[in-house]
Amino acid sequence: MVQSGSVSPVIETSDLSLTFETGDGPVHALSDVSLTINKGEFVSLIGPSGCGKTTLLRVIADLEQPTQGSISINGISPHEARLKRAYGYVFQAPALYPWRTIGKNIALPLEIMGFSKEERAERVRKGLELVNLTGFEKKFPWQLSGGMQQRASIARALSFDPDLLLMDEPFGALDEIVRDKLNEQLLRLWEKTQKTVVFVTHSIPEAVFLSTKIIVMSPRPGKIHDVIDCNFPADRTLDIRETPEFLDVANRVRQGLREGHSYVD
Amino acid sequence: MLTSLWYGKTLPVLAVCAVLAVFWYAGSIWLNGDMQRDAFTNAGKTEFTASEFIAGTWSQERPKLPTPGQILVELNKTVLETAPTSKRSLVYHGSVTISATLLGFLIGSLLGMGLAVLVVHVKSLDRSLMPWVVASQTIPIIALAPMIVVILNQFDITGIVPKAVIAAYLSFFPVTVGMVKGLRSPDPLQLDLMRTYSADRLHTFLKLRVPASVPFLFASLKVAVAASLVGTVVAELTKSEDGGLGARLLAGSYYGQTIQIWSALFAAAACAWVLVTLVGLADRLVTRAMGARP
């Protein structure tokens, strides 16, 4: 994806490390992670379980504190960025509050941030439209399928229009067909909204299909193994997955994952 | 119709009632038998048939164990045939008990919820207050009730309030315990979501903790309303001059009126059933409005 205008960094980390002290001794979740994510990029963090990809996302979101190194979001600390409501976060599970309707769930951040009633209604309407859930405003979460619930949670994360979208394996719990469909929808949504997206996944095709940049991570300690640029045309569809170019990138990612993985045979 | 009778609740409930009734009537013969034999002897009646004997045990004026039939007759007399304003009416005594119960339930629930909010939000109170809350329930209420009445009397607090205070003493506990659990029930994911919005404690409390606690709260309220009734009845044993089902129990035991005691017990059970059912109904309405699956 070619960005118009100047390139400005949204997330910058240098030598970022995070060590959890556990009963069994220290666990090095992140070790010397240095990366830059620019405005408008779609960056995937991929790697096996335990490679620290979710931890890195949580550090960006100020849900975990790094033990060493530095990180800035739009030039300020993650804590300040969180207080400024700089990002929307989509979790692995939809985490919709079961006692709120879909519309009310999408309005939750708006209520907390003090939007007016009219503004809330308007944004909920737009959000539902954005994720193709118009007409489901009055339904409760249990009345929707898993894929629809996750779409609602994406609408919720975008409702207050943050420039940065952090997504932690949002489609990990869904079946292949639904995931494909949501991948395409997410790509269109990203094109339309021009958000900066950081996307955690362990699916290679998903990462290659969606990203402008793929960061391959390896476990124990969690660190960056490889950074792969990946610039397919913006109007790509799922068919692109059959092309040699796509398979080339996918192979490079697979290679990176293999090298970084310490199998115990 | 017939299948719903067979598969529904009606038939099992009726069957259990029938079995209980059989055992109850048998128990009446067994427990009242000695007195019946004495009565026949005193009357100079040495020869009597088994059916005469059984009929006698089932129709004594002050039996050790009155039959369900005798209790129903007494209930009919004191509930339906006596004017509700009369001091002999169980409706009158029931309403005295229920009004104190409801006031106590209200005080206890509000106190219980308030304590729960404090315990959840102030760490030091969790450690300092909770043991006292638990300890408060280890004191037998029957021992505490007279003292509460005497002390409140000293402050010119009389009438319904002392009884309600004793009811509240029993009913706040389940509410505190359930509400603390409910307020702590949101999972880390739901709490993280609030953090990503940098929501303050008040927002997290109102928009996450409180709604999450509602199912726990209602489960506790059902226990609390029953406990409140028990508290009121115990209080009425101490403070019987105002009437109430507890006062009826006390009067019955003074004069050996076992039928009166049992009918007061039944009336208390019916009151508890009505109150618990009402709380259950409120529970259903609220959880339905909060999107629970039907």
Structural notes for this entry:
The complex is a heterodimer of chains A (265) and B (294). Chain A is an alpha/beta fold and 265 residues long. Chain A has 2 domains: 1-86 and 168-246 and 257-261, Rossmann fold (3-Layer(aba) Sandwich); 92-161, no CATH class. Chain A is built from 8 helices and 9 strands. Chain A has helices at 53-60, 78-83, 102-112, 117-130, 146-158, 176-193, 204-210, 244-260, and strands spanning 9-22, 25-38, 42-46, 68-73, 87-90, 164-168, 196-201, 213-218, 223-229. In chain A, the strands form 2 sheets. In chain A, strands 5-6-7-3-8-9 form a 6-stranded mixed sheet, sandwiched between helices. Chain A has a 3-stranded antiparallel sheet with strand order 2-1-4, with helices on one face. In chain A, helix 3 (102-112) crosses helix 4 and helix 3 (102-112) packs parallel to helix 5. Chain A is globular. Chain A starts with 8 loop residues before the first strand and ends in a 5-residue tail after the last helix. The mean pLDDT of chain A is 90. Chain B is mainly α and 294 residues long. Chain B folds into 2 domains: 2-65, no CATH class; 90-289, MetI-like fold (Orthogonal Bundle). Chain B has 12 helices and no strands. Chain B has helices at 2-7, 10-42, 50-57, 68-80, 90-121, 123-136, 141-154, 160-183, 188-196, 201-238, 245-254, 258-289. Chain B is elongated, with a radius of gyration of 25 Å. Chain B starts with a helix and ends in a 5-residue tail after the last helix. In chain B, 33% of the residues are buried. Classes of the chains: A alpha/beta (265), B mainly alpha (294).
Short synopsis of the structure:
The complex is a heterodimer of chains A (265) and B (294). Chain A contains 8 helices and 9 strands.
Shape of chain A: globular
- List the uncertain runs of chain B: none
SSE order of chain A, one letter for each helix or strand:
EEEHEHEHHHEHEHEEH
CATH architecture of the largest domain in chain A: 3-Layer(aba) Sandwich
Question: Which topology of the largest domain in chain B does CATH recognise?
Answer: MetI-like fold
CATH superfamily of the largest domain in chain B: MetI-like
In whole angstroms, the N-to-C terminal distance of chain B is: 23 Å
Could you say how many structural domains of chain B there are in total? 2
Strand order of the largest sheet of chain A: 5-6-7-3-8-9
